[in-house]
From TrEMBL:
This is Putative Flp pilus-assembly TadG-like N-terminal domain-containing protein. It holds the Pfam family Tad. Keywords: Membrane, Transmembrane, Transmembrane helix. Residues 38-84 form the Putative Flp pilus-assembly TadG-like N-terminal domain. Gene3D superfamilies: von Willebrand factor, type A domain. The chain crosses the membrane at residues 39-59. It comes from Phreatobacter aquaticus. Coiled coil: none annotated. The keyword Transmembrane helix applies.
Length: 522
């Protein structure tokens, strides 16, 4: 009996016997093979339905995953936009985030994305958003699920990153007594704006932020406690007393009384630091017009005069260094600044050097004044600017500042200059005092040009040391002054033309945003 081989689906079967037997066996085996292929078809037919359903489920879940990823990106962006805005009202913030989502979500994938919860932590400045959406299914609808939902969460936080040293060089001259909209005086608006900036930058007590406050007017006040520092040259206080003299008189003059009444009302004007003031200058009309006086001889009597004492003291006011262009930089710290004595205070609030003490800064800002008694100060911008640089400098007069980094990274140094007007004073290079323009109109224009040039030179020096300069023109109408301030700023984006109190506050808010770093916190 022979044998023959036969393969069935990869298995090898072998049969031995007569040809008849082999033929019979072969037929049986072929029938078995055909029956088996039919069974497999039936099995496949039964199995294909759940296989296709699984594939459909995978497709639907892939769509959900895609929608969730797109929604997460959109929600992250909305949280960042809200945090970046500087708005502090939660209702406005939520509306801002919702508007952004509406404008930046896909119409076919995340069109159903909605804000479910929105919170704003005013203490930390953190914006947190929870959103939800649905995706229409293609295959799971066969199992009774027409849509699948998803949830996404995002939080954004604006905080200071790295070390920041900031000098606030703020104009508190007499012109800041004017109003600039909203029923506020300019100085009131400045206090609000500066307070907001400090609160924003120092929101996190762990952040490495130091801020200096440099009020300026005619002069800068460096604080009387610094009188004996090596970087100052202040003469000793002194007093002068005029001699008392007495003379004997033997005559007395008496005059006939007159009747005086106010004449036609008249108003006169005067200008101080660009502010026009009015006063009553109505003359008196007396009858008779010429007074008749008579001198008579009397018993001798004594008339004395003089004997008064005038005190000269130092109130913290300093002028400019006059040699080798030192009024334009912080170079040569061994060359002292001149301190000036006076019979009354002619500089305002003292400098507050770099500090991380938030309470001290807020108190100093709140205490800013624009005059002392009858002293109504004018404007000398270079004096404020150079002391802003001095507060950031690593060398004397103040050495709280860390070393300069031209790349402005370690630490980030910044200076904010806010003024509401043009220079109205010049430096007297023989004394370092800041005095009024004088002489002809041509000479006065030349003196103004020199003060503006000194302002520009200090700005250039600050920027060369890696100090980022921001400038704010507050209700300034002088185009030359505005151009000077714009050129002083580190970039066009660092210059703010604030025409009102609300615009001033917005400018400070924007500066705070720039100095902060935005990040997703969750």
């Amino acid at each position: 009996m022979g044998s023959f081989p036969h393969k069935v689906r990869g298995a090898r079967f072998e049969c031995r016997g007569s040809p008849a037997m082999r033929s019979l066996f072969g037929n049986l085996l072929h029938r078995f093979h055909m029956d088996r292929r039919g069974a497999i078809a039936m099995i496949f037919a039964v199995a294909i339905a759940p296989i296709m359903l699984l594939i459909g489920v995978a497709v639907d879940f892939a769509q959900v995953s895609k929608a969730q990823a797109a929604a997460q990106a959109a929600l992250d962006s909305a949280a960042l936009v809200a945090a970046r805005s500087g708005v502090t009202d939660p209702v406005q913030l939520k509306a801002l985030a919702a508007k952004y989502l509406q404008a930046n979500t896909s119409t076919n994938v995340t069109k159903s994305l909605d804000i479910q919860t929105f919170t704003f932590d005013a203490t930390t400045g953190e914006v947190s958003i929870k959103g939800g959406g649905t995706v229409q299914t293609s295959f799971l609808v066969l199992a009774g699920y027409s849509s699948l939902s998803f949830v996404v969460n995002s939080s954004a936080l604006r905080e200071v990153s790295g070390a920041v040293e900031l000098a606030l060089v703020l104009d508190n001259t007499w012109s800041m007594s004017e109003t600039a909209g909203s029923g506020q005086t300019k100085i009131q608006a400045l206090k609000t704006a500066a307070t907001n900036l400090v609160n924003t930058l120092m929101r996190d007590s762990r952040a490495d932020v130091k801020i200096a406050l440099v009020p300026f007017a005619d002069y800068v006040n460096v604080g009387v406690a610094n009188r004996n520092m090596s970087w100052l040259s202040v003469p000793a206080d002194y007093s002068t007393t005029t001699p008392r003299t007495c003379t004997t008189q033997t005559t007395r003059t008496t005059c006939e009384p007159r009747t005086c009444v106010r004449g036609t009302p008249k108003t006169c004007t005067s200008v101080t630091d660009g502010v026009t003031s009015t006063y009553d200058c109505t003359p008196n009309i007396c009858t008779p017009a010429t007074q008749v006086c008579t001198t008579t001889t009397v018993a001798p009597y004594e008339v004395c005069s003089g004997g008064s004492t005038t005190n000269y003291k130092w109130y913290g006011c300093v002028g400019s260094r006059t040699s080798a262009n030192l009024w334009r930089s912080d170079a040569s710290p061994s060359v002292p600044y001149p301190g000036f004595l006076a019979t009354s205070q002619n500089c305002l609030n003292p400098i507050l050097t770099l500090t991380s003490n938030k309470a001290s800064l807020l108190t100093a800002i709140n205490n800013l004044v624009i005059n002392v008694g009858s002293y109504k100060p004018a404007t000398y911008i270079p004096g404020g600017l150079i002391w802003g640089v001095n507060t950031l400098s690593p060398t004397e007069p103040f050495a709280e500042g860390r070393a300069y980094d031209p790349a402005n990274r370690r630490p980030r140094k910044a200076l904010v200059l806010m003024t509401d007007g043009a220079n109205t004073l010049r430096m007297d290079q023989s004394t370092g005092r800041h005095v009024a323009f004088n002489g002809s109109a041509t000479n006065q224009q030349s003196q103004l040009g020199q003060s503006n040039a000194d302002t520009a030179a200090i700005c250039t020096y600050a920027k060369s040391q890696g100090i980022e300069v921001f400038t704010i023109a507050f209700a300034v109408t002088d185009t030359t002054a505005k151009t000077m301030l714009q050129n002083c700023a580190s970039s066009a984006a660092n210059y703010f033309d604030a025409t009102s109190s609300s615009a001033l506050i917005a400018a400070f808010d924007n500066i705070a945003i720039v100095l902060n770093q935005l990040r997703l916190s969750r």
